[in-house]
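Inverse folding, one chain.
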């Protein structure tokens, strides 16, 4: 497994987003076979993309 912690920022339709997230990748023979994403502020992310 590979663990990534990242900061995500963006502007879209007059909205701004500044949040962090964790992505966990499952690897098999060097190929990503699964990715799970955990948002630190899911309601803000959902509003941003709606």
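Residues assigned per position:
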């Amino acid at each position: 497994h590979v663990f990534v912690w990242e900061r995500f920022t963006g502007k879209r339709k007059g909205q701004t987003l500044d949040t962090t997230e964790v992505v966990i990748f499952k690897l098999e023979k060097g190929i990503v076979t699964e990715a799970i994403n955990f948002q630190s502020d899911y309601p803000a992310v959902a509003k941003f993309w709606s």
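The two ends are 31 Å apart (CA to CA). The CA atoms of residues 4 and 23 lie 5 Å apart.
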